[in-house]
Amino acid sequence: MNQSYLTLPYQYIADSPTTKSYAKWQIFEEYLQNPRRAARLGVNEKLLFVKPHLKIPTDMAPHKQEADWPLNIDTRLPAFHFQNLSTSTTIEIRGEEKVLLIEKPLSDTYSAHLNIYLEGKASATLLLLSPEDSEGLSTLSLNIQTRKEAEAKISIIVIDSPKSATALFKATRLEPNSTLKETHILVPGRTLHLESETFLDQENATYISSYAVATPQNRSASIQTSAYIKAPRTAAEIRLAGISHNGELAHKGTIRIHKGSQEARGKLSSRLIPLTPNSKVYAAPTLEIESDDAAEAQHSASQSPLDPAKLFYLQSRALTELEAKRLLLMAELDKVLPEDAKREPTVQKYLELLLASLEINIHK
């Protein structure tokens, strides 16, 4: 791409109102106006609960080759990312488990790209754990593809420091008869923006994507998820549970079932929980059904606090207010997670961290 990112908009007028309207573009602009490549990267070792197989980057030299990216680059933030790449890595995982640790900048900006190919019963965990004193911007693009008949899983964990920022771009494509289950656990710093697009254009592919998100005080997250079903007997399910404590959280989810997608299934849900009157949450689920032979298509959105009656019931059984809220919040998070993810100790530890990020004033 030759056009400078500074000539592009963050979003187009036709995009409004969407989750992009709630993104904190002004925070990203602070980094983009005078970008400097990060001199130091790091990770919060206290949050590293599993040993990584690979640390990225392995080389801080500037990136020279173009990354493999299937989507148009016509807005400012992704254009900045690809014009300022520091590293691009291709990883093939064949029937094994891999943990990838992606270092974060202590200041300034750092941009990385990963091509991830999943074959057989492959499993990948991506960890982005900001050092406690990090104030930098991290941008990451993921080009994820499953091989034919794969039964793959991928977990993406982002735990940011209060003064850092993250942008994540994800493009996913599934080959025939393959299944991909995604789990995201996201705790932003100043702000986090995520754009995910998934393409199911091969028969009998199944995609299940789950998000657990928390926005503590004065932090924000804008999540945009899209799945495009273009082949018979394919299925896509996107489900998000988000909690905000004096922060901001927006989710726009889209599933489009194209013509010719016989017996396709699409399910989309968004459950957003404001813990205080000053918490701002926004959900916008959209289904676009062009096929006249879809087997299932449903969507739901909920923007409401925890049920006071349930809180009272638990407190009447000798739980404190904090314990009751934690129990109900964990139940909401468990609803969106795949069953196998609930049994993974690493996932559970990061869910505990997610709730801990809200606990300082959760009872107020």
From TrEMBL:
Record protein name field: Iron-sulfur cluster assembly protein SufD
A biological process term (GO) from this entry: iron-sulfur cluster assembly
UniProt source species: Thermofilum adornatum 1505
Ranges for the SUF system FeS cluster assembly SufBD core domain? 111-331
Recorded hits in InterPro entries, A to Z, give:
Fe-S_cluster_assembly_SufBD (IPR055346), SUF_FeS_clus_asmbl_SufBD_core (IPR000825), SUF_FeS_clus_asmbl_SufBD_sf (IPR037284)
